[in-house]
Amino acid sequence: MAPVLEPYFKQVDSMADSFIDRLRKAVAIPSISADAAHRPAVVKMADFLENELTTLGAHVERRYLGEQHPGLDLPPVLLGRYGDDPKKRSILVYGHYDVQPALKEDGWATDPFTLHVDEKDRMFGRGSTDDKGPVLGWINAIEAHKKAGIEFPVNLLMCFEGMEESGSEGLDNLIKQEAQVFFKDVDAVCISDNYWLGAEKPCLTYGLRGVSYFGIEVSGPGQDLHSGVYGGTVTEPMTDLINVMSTLVNNKGRILIPGIYDQVAPVTPEEEALYADIAFTMQDLYDGIGSKTAIFDDTKSTLMARWRNPSLSLHGVEGAFSAEGAKTVIPAKVIGKFSIRTVPDMDPEKVEKLVQQHVEWEFAKLNSNNTFKFHPLHAGKWWVSSPKHWNFTAAAKAVEQVWGVKPDMTREGGSIPVTLTFEQQTGKNVLLLPMGSSTDAAHSINEKLDKKNYIQGTKMLGAYLHFVAEEPITE
Amino acid sequence: MAPVLEPYFKQVDSMADSFIDRLRKAVAIPSISADAAHRPAVVKMADFLENELTTLGAHVERRYLGEQHPGLDLPPVLLGRYGDDPKKRSILVYGHYDVQPALKEDGWATDPFTLHVDEKDRMFGRGSTDDKGPVLGWINAIEAHKKAGIEFPVNLLMCFEGMEESGSEGLDNLIKQEAQVFFKDVDAVCISDNYWLGAEKPCLTYGLRGVSYFGIEVSGPGQDLHSGVYGGTVTEPMTDLINVMSTLVNNKGRILIPGIYDQVAPVTPEEEALYADIAFTMQDLYDGIGSKTAIFDDTKSTLMARWRNPSLSLHGVEGAFSAEGAKTVIPAKVIGKFSIRTVPDMDPEKVEKLVQQHVEWEFAKLNSNNTFKFHPLHAGKWWVSSPKHWNFTAAAKAVEQVWGVKPDMTREGGSIPVTLTFEQQTGKNVLLLPMGSSTDAAHSINEKLDKKNYIQGTKMLGAYLHFVAEEPITE
Ligand SMILES: [Zn+2]
Ligand SMILES: [Zn+2]
Ligand SMILES: [Zn+2]
Ligand SMILES: [Zn+2]
C-alpha cells in the first residue's frame, strides 16, 4: 500500500460513525427536485453541503441558474474548491444533491427520509446511494485527511447540482461558461453517480449509450369520437399509428429502420476479448428484469446489446385510452413514443433523419387521410472514453487498494448527459467511478447504500485522488 | 288530424312554460350517477319524479337494486303505472333520470345545472336531452291529458332508472324478474333515449349494433424497466403487443380477423333501397367527426358502415407510458384494448372465438418468450326490429301528425343494451322514438334540447300513445 494511504484508511475507519451521521442528516432533507413544493428542501440541502464544505475550509460559490418557471427558482449549483496549489493537479468531481420522489406509501419498509441501518449494515433512505452517499464521500475524504494531518494530494474542484433528477436544467450552460473560468485548471474529471454492474465487484465505467427520443403523431377527427357512432366510417388515427409503430423493431431487439446499423462501429478483437472477464451472469440479468424473458442466453451477447449496440423501445401512446376497464373511444389524436439508444459511431442527426424518413414512408404507404407529424423530442449523444487513460489507471489502482481486486472496465446502457458535457467543455478525460452496487435500488422503493460501500467508497475516492495526483500522464 | 289530438296539442302548447319549468327543476338536480358523492342528488331526482307522477295520480313503486359497493346504495328504479284498464293496451316506456358528469370548467358556456334558454330557444343544461327531457315528456303528456279532460288512451307502464350512464347495474335482472309481474300485460315497448340522425328530420330507430370488447395482455419482466439499462436485452412486451394489434384492422375499416365477415347478413335489395331516402349528408358526417377524414365519400356506404357492417376500433394501451413528455420506460405488462361493433347475424360467442384464435395465432408467430393473455371484457348483442311492426307504424303516424313529415327509419351504430333486454324479457316489440336531434351534444359540454323538440316531442309521445292504442295488430 502506498504509505500515505494507510493512515488515511485508518482515519476513515475511525470516523465511520460520524460519516454515517453525516449521511443521516443529508437523507433527512427531502430534496426532491421534481416537486416544486419541495424546492425549499432542495435549497436546504445546498445550504447543508455548503456549510459542511466551508467548515472544512473549502471555498464555495453558489451559482443561480434562474427560474424554472415564473416564481420558482432553480436550485443553486455549488461550485467548490479545496486547495489552490499550482503545483498540484486539479481534479473536478461532480455529484448531485437532489433526489427522486419517495413516499412511505409507495411501499417503503421504513420512512424514506429517515436513514435506517439494518442488521446487514444496509443503510436505507432516499438519496443514500443516488447521489448523497457519493457526494458526502468526497467531503468525508477531505475531513479524514484534515483530521489525520495528511496533505491533500490535489486541488479538488467540485460541481454539485440540485436538478439532476429533473433534467439538470441550466447546468450545461453553466459548465460551458465556467469551462475556462472556474474549471480552467482541471486536469481530469471524476463523476460518482452510477453503480457497479453487479453486487460484488467494483467497476470503472468508460462508456454510455446515447438516447434519441421520438414522438409520432397521427390526427384526424376534431375530437374524440364514440366508436359505436363512428366506427367503420372514420379513418382512425390509432390504426395508422399502430401500423407505423409495428414497423420499428422486432421482438428480438432488431431495429427495422433502414440504415441504422450502418453507423454502428464494428467490434474489434480487442473489444471482443473484454467481455469474457466481466463479473456478470445471466442470473444477474434475470434478477434485474425480474423474469427470464431475455433476448439472449449468454452474457457476451447481453452485455454487447446493453453497452455497444443500439436498441429501440416502444414506450407508449399519448392520447389513447390508457386506464383500466373498457372505454369505447376513437381517439382523435395519438402520439406514439419510442426511443433509440445510440452507440459509437452513430450521429444523432443522422439517426433522426433515418427515423423521420422511415416513419414518413411507412405512413405514406398506408394511404391515409389522417395527418402525420414527426416530433424529435430530445437527443443525447453516446459517450465513450479510453479505459487506458491515466485517469482510469489511477482509479483502478485505488479500487485495487481498497477492494483487493482489479475493477471491471464496463460501459452502461443508459445515459448520463453531463459526462459528455464535461468532456466536451473541459477537453479533459472523464471517469465514472461508482460507489454503490447494482442492488441499491436507486429510483425505486427501499433505496439503500451498504455501509461497506460507503466507508470503503470514501477510502476509494481519497485513494483515487492520491493516485491521480501522481499517475504518469501517458496519453 | 285524429279529432282527439287537436285539443291535446292545444293543451300542450298552452302549458309549454310550465313544462319548461318542470325541465328547469329537473336539470337543477345534478343526478350524476358516475360520482358517488352525487348519489344523494340521484336519489333526489328519483324523489322528484315520484312526486310528479303520484301528484298526477300515477302509482309508483321504488325498486332497490342493492349496493353498488359496500356503503353505496344503487339508485332506485321507479316502476310506474298510469291507468289500469284491462280494455286498454299497456305500453311500457323506459327512460333514465341520471346524467353524465358536467363541470362549468369543462367549457360550458353557462352553468350546466341551471337551464339556460337562449334567443334561439335552445335549452342548455346537463340532462336536458339525455334523458330528462324525454322522461318528462311522458309526464307532460299525462298532465296535458288530465288538464284537457281527454281520456288517456293506454295503460302507461314506466321504468325509469338512475344508473344508465354508469352501466345500468342491476337493471337487467330487475327486468327479468318483473317481466311476468309488473310488466306482464305489456303490449309494446317504447324507449325515448336516442337522437335524430340529423338536425331537422325525425326518425324511428329499429336497429342497433352490438359491441364485443377485448383486452390482449402481454407481460414479461417483473416490473417496469429502464430502457437504457435493459433496452436490447429483454423481450419487450410492447413490441409484441403492437405487432399483434397491427394485425386486427386496416385504416379502410376492414377487419383482418379471418371469418368475421362470414357471419354478416347479406344486403337485400329491399334494404339497399332504404338508404337513398335517408336525410343524411356527408356534411352531417363531417360536422359530427369535426374533420373530413372519412373512409367513404358517399352516404350509402357511410350509413351501411355505421348501421349494418361490423367495425373494429383500437382504443388504447393500458400499462404503457401515456402522459405528455418523454419517459424512457420499458413497460412490464401492457394490455391492448379494442372492440368490434357487431351486426346481424354475428354471434358474440363465435366472434369471441374467432378473435381469440386470431390473436393467439398472431402472438405465436412472434415466437416470443413473453406471456400472452386474452381477455374478453364484455359483449352486448346487436338488436334489429321490424320497422313495419304496428308499434312503428303507430309511431310513424304520430311523427307525421306532429312534424308533418314521414320519419326516416334508421339504425344506429352504438348500442343501447336495455333495448334487447326488454325485447327478450317481455317478448314484445321495442321501438326507439327519439325526441332530441343529433346537434344536442349529449355527453358533451353545452348539452341542449331545443324548445321545439321538447314541446313537439311531448305532443309526439302523446300522439304515439293514441295511435298505438288503436293500430291494427298486423304482426
Ligand atoms: Zn444520480
Ligand atoms: Zn438518479
Ligand atoms: Zn341516455
Ligand atoms: Zn347518455
Automatic annotation (TrEMBL), chains A, B:
* One Pfam family per UniProt: M20_dimer
Q: Which positions does UniProt annotate for substrate binding?
A: D193, H226, T328, R341, S415, H443
Is this entry keyworded Heme? Answer: no
Q: Which residues hold Mn(2+) 2?
A: H96, D130, D193
Cite the Peptidase M20 dimerisation domain residue spans from the record: 208-364
GO terms for MF: metal ion binding; metallodipeptidase activity
Q: Which InterPro entries match?
A: ArgE/DapE_CS (IPR001261), CNDP/DUG1 (IPR017153), Cyt/Met_Dipeptidase (IPR051458), Peptidase_M20 (IPR002933), Peptidase_M20_dimer (IPR011650)
- Site feature: Important for catalytic activity: H226
Active-site residue list: D98, E164 (proton acceptor)
Q: How is the cofactor bound?
A: Binds 2 manganese ions per subunit.
Residue positions binding Mn(2+) 1: D130, E165, H443
SUPFAM superfamilies this protein is in?
Zn-dependent exopeptidases
Source domain of life: Eukaryota
Q: Which cofactor does it need?
A: Mn(2+)
Ordered alphabetically, the record's keywords are: Hydrolase, Manganese, Metal-binding, Metalloprotease, Protease
**GO biological process assignments:** proteolysis
According to its UniProt record, which protein family does this protein belong to? Belongs to the peptidase M20A family.
**PANTHER family per the record?**
BETA-ALA-HIS DIPEPTIDASE (PTHR43270), CARNOSINE DIPEPTIDASE 2, ISOFORM A (PTHR43270:SF4)
What's the protein called, per UniProt? CNDP dipeptidase
Q: Which organism is it from?
A: Terfezia boudieri ATCC MYA-4762
